[in-house]
Amino acid sequence: MDFSEAFTRYETLVDQVGQVFTKVNSEFPTEVTCKAGCDDCCHALFDLTFVEALYIKSKFDEHFTGKARYEITERANTVDRALAKLKKEAYKRHEAGETDAAIIEEVSKARMRCPLLGEEGTCLMYDYRPIACRVYGIPTSAGGQGHTCGLSGFDQGKAYPTLNMDLVYNRLYKVSGELVRKLDSRFTKMGSVLMPLSMVLLTDFNEEYLGVEVKV
């Protein structure tokens, strides 16, 4: 299975997003408070698109073996169980008639330590961190809702350059969908799947999982 073309397109998007962060940071150095030792984004909940999941897992497999790999996957197991419990509770609230907006708002407040956050408070895969981590410190929007890091200096009510994450995710979905078609997977909707990082680290993206015919 050849993911190189999709990975190159993903890395191009990562570079473009990084340029946006750098530009906003240079224009608003007081408001962007990201610095070494800050791990606020490392406790936020978010999911990865298909191509990003494959990319990050490939880098994880490439860089981690032995004890270090075991410790990370153990942490990923713990987080994954906690997420499953959180989703189960959210489903119960939905069945009880609570509005989706209220459930989403409550879930968004949940905090879980990323399994890739090291003991010294630094990311163990910083060079390959997800896009969501790369833009956390600047104003973003998704689904018409704005977001800023709670530790930043951006004032509510003021207009700032804002990264439209809907456009970013549309690009990710496009690359993911085209990759699934290139793989000729029987799981034709896999390109629209979202996965938490903890599950990505625990998943073996082999031919069987990807729905790809094994040629003998």
UniProtKB/TrEMBL annotation:
Q: By its UniProt entry, which InterPro entries does this protein fall under?
A: Puta_zinc/iron-chelating_dom
* Organism of origin: Desulfoluna butyratoxydans
Q: Which domain of life is it from?
A: Bacteria
- The protein here is known as Putative zinc- or iron-chelating domain containing protein
